[in-house]
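TL;DR need structure tokens for one chain.
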Amino acid sequence: MSKWLLPEHLADILPAEARRIEELRRQLLDLYRTHGFELVAPPLVEYLDSLLSGSGSDLNLRTCKLVDQLSGRTLGVRPDITPQVSRIDAHLLNRVGVTRLCYCGTVLHARPADLLSDRELLQIGAEVFGHEGVEADIQVIQLAVESVHTAGVKDARIDLNHPGIFRAIIDADPALADPDLQAELSDMMASKDVSGIQRLCAALDGIRPDTVQALQALPRLYGTTDVLDAAVSQLPRLPAVFKAIADLKALVVALPDYAFSIDLADAGAGYAYHSGVVFSIYAQGWHDALVRGGRYDGVGKAFGRVRPATGFSLDLRKLSSGLGAPPLARAIQAPWGTEDGLVQAIRQLRQAGEIVVQVLPGQPHALDEFQVDRELVLHEGQWVIRAISAGA
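>> reply
TL;DR here they are.
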């Protein structure tokens, strides 16, 4: 095997793309700071039981595991930073009131999410802890949309869902108490497999007719925000169902300038720790959601403190990949030399923010990131900038 080959779904990032990803990281972290979010940096690896506390089994399947040579305990390479940030809020900061935290770091998936996804992601996100009202969800969605707009994404669309609706329906029927059965139903909901749901329900003893009707209705409850009114008439009159629909309506009303769609069957989206309103942001040019987020109250319970929490995350590598070719930065070419006048001229240009590439003796340079359109030349005893003609 050639030594330069990488494992499947892992890739190097080359100069121009790597620069844009780094610039996006800086821009978004600066954006979050202006909104009052504080930066944290959890470790890449930690004990597996801590890393997966309060999260769903699907996150466990995405976690690469190894043995700690010091303690002998099993470690996990983080597949998602959100549980780590929840641990920091609940166990380390232990603040009273609202805490806003942001982060950016590498995560690794044991398997890719789909055929077009990478296993290594550069995850950036923001989380609000300590407020259970819809106001925090509104802030988070606004910041998520502003994040993709800052990156240059046009016509972003927000898809809303509330997994509490599906959970309320299955929890109300004892015939659906089996966790494996619930997981199978959740997958069928996500794929809108109405015929599969019908076959599964027909094979169950004791399932209530209103439950069957609700499970068949959910896959069809997607589209514009009018779906919420249809859900009120088609779903069981359970308090948790009506509370979830009311939360979704409150978001839509509070953000009238946003393009929303509703998909009440997508119960399998994201990780299983979500407990309230969840959302995804889609845009032309990306095969999958650019941003995923939502409410995940109670994840901190495993660390000794239950806290309301809501937030979002996105992969900067995926975000950058759909933006088109990054523009080249203008640069100045300077000759090789160590004399004081040349060294001083180059230093002054760099201090002024210019990119100066000093050519090594007898060696041409190949650049992906820069457009060298000027050169530093000695003219009448002074180092001056001269434009490079197109044919030079």
